[in-house]
Amino acid sequence: xxxxxxxxxxxxxxxxxxxxxxxxxxxxxxxxxxxxxxxxxxxxxxxxxxxxxxxxxxxxxxxxxxxxxxxxxxxxxxxxxxxxxxxxxxxxxxxxxxxxxxxxxxxxxxxxxxxxxxxxxxxxxxxxxxxxxxxxxxxxxxxxxxxxxxxxxxxxxxxxxxxxxxxxxxxxxxxxxxxxxxxxxxxxxxxxxxxxxxxxxxxxxxxxxxxxxxxxxxxxxx
Length: 222
Prior knowledge:
The protein is an alpha+beta fold. It has one domain. 28% of the residues lie in helices and 19% in strands. It is built from 7 helices and 11 strands. Strands 8-9-10 form a 3-stranded antiparallel sheet, with helices on one face. Strands 1-2 form a two-stranded antiparallel sheet. The N and C termini lie far apart (51 Å).
C-alpha cells in the first residue's frame, strides 16, 4: 500500500507541476510549429500563452469593463474571442499591446513579437500581387453573407481570421479578418502598428491604432 501511495503522490505532484506551467511553450512545440519564409522563421500558430516569459501570470479580462479599464490604465491583459475558451483552440488568445510590450516578455524563449520592419520584410519577400492569398489558410475565411475568401497558404504562414477586440471591450471580425500586433509604436501617442489579412484583401494591410485594442500575436524566431 505504501508503494501505491507513493506512486499516486508522485503522479499528483507531476500533475500539479504541469498545471503550474500551463500556458508555457516547450522547445519541442516551437520546433514543430514553425515555417521558414525567406530568411525569417515564423510560428505557424497564434500565440496562446497566459504567462509572461518569467512565469508571472498575464491577467485575463473576462468582462468588457475589465478590458476597457486595463487599456485606460496601460495594463497588460488577454482574452478569448467572445470570452469563449473554445475559440482559443484554433485562434489563440487576443492581447492588448501593453502585454506585447511588457518587459517580462510575452513571447516564449527564443521567440519575439515581430517589429513593424520585420512584418515589412515578410511582405516584401512574398512579392507583389496577391500576398494575402499566399498567407491565408485554406479554410475558415468568409464574410457575413458566406462568401469565401480562403487562401492557398502558399507561404506556409497559415493565417487565420481570429478577429479582435476593441478598446471598449466589443468583439468583431472573426471569420473575416486576421490581425496581428507588431512590437512597434506609432508616432501617434497611444497607437501601435499591426498587420491585417482580410477575406477580400489581396494585400497584407498595414495600420496603427489604439494599444488598448486586442489582436492576435504571431511570433518570429530570434
